[in-house]
UniProtKB/TrEMBL annotation:
Organism of origin: Methanosphaerula palustris (strain ATCC BAA-1556 / DSM 19958 / E1-9c)
E.C. code: 2.7.13.3
PANTHER family per record: PAC DOMAIN-CONTAINING PROTEIN (PTHR43304:SF1), PHYTOCHROME-LIKE PROTEIN CPH1 (PTHR43304)
Pfam families associated with the record: HATPase_c (PF02518), HisKA (PF00512), PAS (PF00989), PAS_4 (PF08448), PAS_8 (PF13188), PAS_9 (PF13426)
This protein's name: histidine kinase
Superkingdom classification of source: Archaea
Residue span(s) of domain Histidine kinase: 1052-1266
GO molecular function, one term: phosphorelay sensor kinase activity
Coiled-coil zones: 445-490, 736-781
Record domain PAC: where: 99-151, 403-454, 563-616, 693-745, 854-907
């Protein structure tokens, strides 16, 4: 017998050692998991958490104890993610394969963290689910970067597609509604007046828009202004470090504010019920240009994470807005330039440096024979002219390129004389990139000059007639001067007429009755409107013209327009006025019926009279000039010959081709002794001392002969006093002087005649001066060019050698925000920011030496303090000596917006590149290669990030083919990427690259359209994770096998021990019955110990068998009536219930899915414990209830017993753990462990609520769905 006991004892010791070894293995595995940097957790089917490692605690902010007491489905998982989680867990249960999915956790501090879970399901031998274990990766930063990159790319791509701002912003708002879920989003941009209007919005009501849209930084105070001005305080909870404002419960927040604080803001969003609001600055570089307004009536719609993403995306939006605005401004300038070109009466061309035609205006095309644009653009201009002209033209182009200055010259084509001006156009590097050419037909002017010179031969014969005619001419000129003055007044009048709508305007109905006309029309006809309204139109016209005029007017009832129609109008005093009319029909709502006609007129009566007078005076003047016998020579401001008459060729012997463009110094025609006197006379003419003069000097003819000439010179200057040209009429008096020398003493009469001739010549000079003035009037094109400068879109400025501003145009006024009258005479310094003034002036001072500024970038200070960046070119204006700089003119191009756009794009690119370079994941863009059947055969790496090489082990991959880098790369990679390139469907997957000996997690999507064949790939080397998963799976499998072996061992050991234990119990009881009292007292005591120990051992083995059978012996799930289970448990305990007079109260019980026998055991153990641990002097009272909670039921068993110290609430559910001795309360310490295992076996959890001395309440949950 002792040998058997010894054997049993040895077996028990061996079993204990096996249990300790298993515990050590489990402790080792648990330590590995706890030390892992990757969060790991075990979750039960009822929502409770089991084991979690330290990394999991850091991820969530909760301690392990806090986590194990909570329902993770209700506490950690946001409501919107529950459906995603449910679907993935259903797939896990259905397939048994691990699932990987993304979701969010709500951390203890209320913030959210984006995670990726890899979830495994653990089952028992019968395949019944036991619990989950998960590996978790924090992907918050990765997800944010992906979102920033994706949204920024969408914005920048939209800017490439949309060339106007409105469609860009509307698409951006749709993108943000999709991303944020907010129902109201708007984009507000700060304008130059300080207003912040909505350029685009969606979701806001019309009332809200009208109330909020007029917001101004100059007059209003609110949070929007703080964000725009960058005055947010990040220490306050509703402002972010990026300068944004966000709040998710405005009503609650406003309730905490004082009345004083509430007065500081307009509070429009709160008034219309927006609970979630965010204001995010839109930036262009360091400047805030606007804000993004998000709002929703629901609380909690705008997370801090999304605001951080949108703060970065707002940089891309700012860059896109600046880019589109810049493009719009450029298109507007281009249209303006095209309109100017179309209206110009000169031929205007743009040529390449190789003479290729790049642009031609309509006038140029007409003069080229009416060709279409397509027939000339891209062709060389020399194709349309003779080789001789082409060669000369080429020389002029080379001169422009080499001198970098404008060149003017003439040529003749098919009898037509053209004067051409070639101007260099510089690129950003300052090189001549093309040539702008302006051409004017001057044939008529030259013919008039030639005819004038031919007819001057008879001028002496007509001296007397000329004297009389001169008086008439003076009177005509006086009249012309008066008319010119009147025309200027008329110009001012017309300006006021346009400004104040004073043009004669009339309206009539389809019956041709006058319905309305303005004050100007009253003045036109000398009648008041009240006297004429309702009268027929006939009363406005002279009778002899009435019917033809009405015939024209009747057409207007059919919708036809009068366009520049000349109609006589009858004044009340009988005077007939000539008026130019334009009309337009006013249609009814059907767009066809003419309701009335409106006409606007221009009284040209005086102009008609002036034109007639000018025409008559011009005919008289032309007649006299054409009969002049004098040689005519004209010089420009540099004394280069610009006109050479036939008579001049006869007098001097040189042809026009030999002298044109040459200076008087280059033509050897002044007699040496007269050179100084001629130079002095020329200088006086140039500096304005002698606007006209007459002198006689000796000249050389081409053949070397010396002749004496009388020169009649007249200087022509523009309105600014600058010399334009000098007109000289030359009379060869050689023969006359000789005759005078011979006859001086003999013929006094001839002397008197000479004096008379001299007087006549003076009159002739005056006539020529007046002729020059008339010619100046004919050059109104110069005034046109002046107006073109004044109203050009480019800013133009002029300063003197003392660097005082002498002039600038309207565009410059807009550039600096000041009127010309306020700045003229001021020093240049006021135009520049102080810190840039000295370096800029250092550049400008060089212009006094004649140097040019060519594409120089200079900052300009606007009156409002804004600094504009302008690209400048300048040219010196020289004095008569050709060396002294009298002033400098500069033309600029405002490139501020372009610089903003460049800076915004640079910053956006830097941010993109920073994200690109700092991504820990590998990233690349590949170009797919296909065969003729569209099957993918290879791909080329176009772009890779720094992490690429680390993630793949491939070196110098950019620009190379994958098959060259890894010839054995699996085909499925090419097929996946090929499908993405063709279909555009993004894919996310995990796959093994055996050729690289790595596992990858991959997100891939197409870049551009199908034709691009490009795919962007974001990937992460998960080889270590895969290996870790494999290790952990092995650990979990080993743990599962160990637990199963342990349970099997406990079952077998308990079962096998029962037989020898029965023998021990049986024989010890026989010894007790037969030999009690027959042996000594010690023997009786020893026998009692044996019997008691054997009985306790039997109870322990029975409990162990019960504990081990819970997982092994669960029956198929069935519907269990919990009321029936409680009644059966009470029936099993009826004897102790009666012995203790226990009272059991139960509420309504549900039916659940489970195992009836185990439910009976559960309640039997809890009711039994309630009675056992109730003091003897107290009658036990037990209350059993059930309550519906979430997706299942919560049951409670409450008693009036001893109660349990909270320090032991966890320990009591551990096997063999007891709080009392066996002498106080008998038992094995397995009862509550059995209860816990039954509850967990059904997917629930159990806990106790108790204080020592106050009774206990045991609560457990059972889920509604069967497991």
């Amino acid at each position: 017998m002792s040998e058997e006991l010894q054997a049993n004892n040895d077996q028990l010791l061996a079993n204990e050692r096996a249990l300790l070894e298993s515990l050590e293995r489990n402790t080792f595995l648990s330590d590995i998991l706890d030390r892992s940097s990757q969060p790991f957790g075990v979750g039960y089917l009822d929502g409770r958490l089991g084991i979690v490692n330290h990394a999991f605690e850091e991820l969530t902010g909760y301690t392990a104890d806090e986590l194990q007491k909570m329902d993770w489905t209700a506490t950690l998982t946001p409501p919107e993610w529950l459906d995603v989680e449910r679907k993935n867990l259903e797939e896990l249960h259905r397939t048994g394969k691990p699932v990987r999915y993304e979701k969010e956790y709500i951390k203890k501090d209320g913030t959210r963290v984006a995670i990726e879970l890899l979830v495994h399901l653990v089952t028992d031998k019968e395949g019944n689910p036991q619990y989950y274990y998960s590996f978790i990766t924090d992907i918050t930063e990765q997800k944010r970067n992906r979102e920033i990159l994706s949204l920024s790319n969408r914005v920048l791509h939209s800017a490439e597609e949309h060339h106007t701002l409105q469609p860009l912003l509307e698409e951006y708002i749709r993108t943000l509604q999709e991303y944020t879920g907010c129902d109201s989003i708007g984009v507000r941009i700060l304008d130059e007046q300080g207003n912040i209007p909505y350029l685009a919005y969606a979701g806001f009501s019309r009332d809200f828009y009208e109330q909020e849209n007029p917001l101004s930084v100059r007059t209003d105070h609110c949070i929007c202004i703080n964000v725009i001005e960058g005055t947010t305080d990040p220490s306050l909870p509703f402002y972010t470090a990026g300068g944004s404002f966000m709040i998710n419960a405005t009503t609650k927040f406003r309730a905490t504010e004082s009345d004083e604080e509430k007065e500081k803001t307009r509070n429009t969003c709160t008034m219309v019920g927006y609970e979630s609001v965010a204001l995010i600055p839109i930036r262009k570089g360091d400047q805030i240009m606007g804000l993004l307004h998000l709002a929703d009536h629901q609380e909690g719609m705008i997370s801090a994470e999304k605001v951080r993403v949108l703060e970065q995306v707002a940089y891309a939006l700012g860059a896109s807005i600046v880019r589109v605005q810049t493009e719009e401004a450029l298109r507007k300038q281009e249209k303006t330039a095209q309109a100017i070109l179309a209206a110009a009466k000169e031929s205007i061309w743009l040529f390449g440096t190789d003479d290729t035609i790049l642009m031609a205006n309509p006038t140029a095309l007409v003069r080229l024979g009416g060709k279409d644009t397509g027939e000339v653009i891209g062709h060389q201009y020399s194709e349309f002219m003779t080789s001789e002209l082409a060669q000369a033209r080429r020389a002029r182009i080379e001169e422009v390129i080499s001198s970098r200055r404008s060149v003017q010259f003439e040529d003749i084509r098919a009898g037509t004389i053209f004067i051409h001006t070639f101007c260099p156009v510089f690129d950003e590097a300052g090189a001549v990139s093309s040539i702008a050419a302006f051409s004017r037909d001057i044939t008529g002017i030259r013919q008039a000059d030639e005819e004038l010179l031919k007819k001057n031969e008879g001028l002496h014969i007509l001296n007397e007639e000329l004297t009389a005619t001169q008086e008439e001419l003076r009177q005509s000129i006086d009249e012309l001067t008066t008319m010119e003055h009147e025309l200027r007044e008329t110009g001012q009048y017309l300006e006021n007429l346009i400004q104040y709508a004073n043009a004669p305007i009339i309206v009539w109905d389809p019956a041709f009755r006058i319905t309305r006309f303005n004050h100007a029309f009253e003045l036109l006809i000398g009648r008041k409107a009240a006297d004429v309204i309702g009268q027929p139109l006939e009363l406005l016209f002279p009778k002899k013209f009435a019917e033809p005029v009405l015939e024209i007017i009747r057409k207007t009832t059919r919708g036809e327009r009068m366009e520049v129609v000349e109609i006589p109008i009858l004044h009340q005093n009988g005077e007939i006025r000539t008026v130019l009319w334009n009309s337009a029909a006013i249609f009814g709502s059907d767009g066809e019926t003419v309701l009335s006609t409106i006409a606007q007129g221009q009284d040209i009566t005086e102009r008609k009279r002036t034109e007639e007078a000018l025409h008559e005076a011009h005919l008289r003047l032309t007649h006299h000039i054409e009969n002049s016998p004098l040689a005519v020579v004209e010089f420009d401001a540099q004394f280069r010959v610009t006109r050479w008459s036939d008579e001049a060729e006869k007098v001097f012997g040189w042809t026009m081709a030999e002298v044109m463009g040459r200076t008087i110094d280059e033509i050897p025609w002044v007699y040496e002794e007269d050179v100084d006197r001629v130079a002095s006379i020329s200088a006086d003419m140039m500096n304005g001392k002698a606007p006209r003069n007459k002198h006689t000097n000796r000249n050389y003819r081409k053949d070397g002969a010396v002749i004496t000439c009388e020169w009649y010179n007249s200087a022509l200057r523009d309105e600014t006093g600058e010399l334009v040209s000098i007109l000289s009429q030359v009379l060869d008096v050689t023969e006359r002087d000789r005759a005078e020398a011979d006859l001086l003493e003999k013929n006094q009469e001839l002397s008197e005649l000479n004096e008379e001739l001299t007087a006549t010549q003076e009159e002739l000079r005056q006539s020529i001066d007046e002729l020059t003035t008339m010619e100046h009037e004919l050059r109104e094109t110069g005034q046109y060019l002046e107006n073109l400068i004044q109203y050009a879109n480019a800013p133009i400025i002029v300063w003197d050698p003392a660097f005082r501003i002498t002039r600038f145009n309207h565009a410059f006024e807009l550039l600096i925000g000041r009127k010309a009258a306020d700045v003229i005479g001021q020093p240049l310094e006021l135009l520049f920011p102080k810190k840039f003034a000295e370096p800029v002036l250092e550049i400008i001072r060089k212009t006094n030496d004649g140097e040019r500024m060519e594409v120089v970038e200079i900052p300009i200070l606007h009156q409002n303090g804004e600094v504009r960046t302008v690209l400048w070119n300048s040219a010196a204006i020289f004095g008569a000596d050709g060396e002294t700089v009298q002033s400098t003119i500069a033309q600029g191009q405002d490139i501020t917006k372009r610089k903003w756009a460049e800076e915004a794009l640079r910053q956006s690119e830097e941010q993109y590149r920073m994200l690109f370079n700092t991504l820990t994941e590998g990233f690349c863009i590949i170009e797919m290669l296909f065969d003729a059947d569209e099957r993918p055969i290879d791909y080329r790496f176009l772009e890779i990030n720094p992490a690429f090489e680390r993630q793949t082990g491939l070196h110098e991959a950019q620009g190379r083919l994958m098959r060259d880098l890894a010839p054995n790369h699996e085909e499925h990679w090419f097929e996946i990427y090929g499908t993405i390139a063709l279909t555009g469907e993004p894919v996310r997957f995990e796959n093994e690259a055996k050729a690289l000996n790595r596992w990858y997690e991959v997100s891939a999507y197409r870049v551009g359209g199908p034709e691009s064949r490009r795919v962007a790939i974001l990937f992460n080397d998960i080889t270590e994770r895969k290996q870790a998963e494999e290790v952990l799976k092995t650990i979990a499998d080993n743990l599962k096998a160990s637990n199963q072996e342990l349970e099997q061992f406990a079952y077998i050991a308990s079962h096998d021990l029962k037989e020898p234990l029965r023998m021990v119990t049986c024989f010890s009881q026989i010894l007790e019955r037969q030999y009690k009292g027959q042996l000594d007292a010690d023997a009786d005591e020893f026998i009692g110990y044996i019997v008691d120990g054997a009985l306790r051992m039997e109870a322990l083995i029975n409990d162990l068998l019960l504990y081990s059978r819970i997982n092994q012996g669960m029956r198929p799930v069935e519907r269990v009536d919990m009321k029936h289970a409680i009644e059966e448990a009470i029936s099993n305990l009826i004897i102790p219930i009666r012995e203790r007079n226990a009272r059991i109260t139960r509420g309504a019980m549900p039916s659940i899915q489970g195992d009836l026998s185990q439910m009976v055991q559960l309640f039997q153990n809890l009711i039994g414990n309630a009675m056992k641990y109730c003091p003897e002097e107290r009658e036990p009272e037990i209350w059993i209830n059930a309550e519906r909670t979430g997706k299942g039921w919560t049951f409670s068993v409450k008693d009036n017993g001893l109660g349990i110290d909270p320090a032991y609430h966890e320990q009591i559910f551990m096997i063999f753990r007891r709080l009392h001795t066996k002498a106080e309360y008998p038992g094995t310490g397995i009862g509550l462990a059995v209860v816990k295992r039954i509850v967990e076996r059904h997917g629930g959890r159990i806990w106790v609520e108790s204080e020592e001395g106050s009774g206990s309440t045991f609560l457990f949950t059972i889920p509604e769905k069967p497991l």
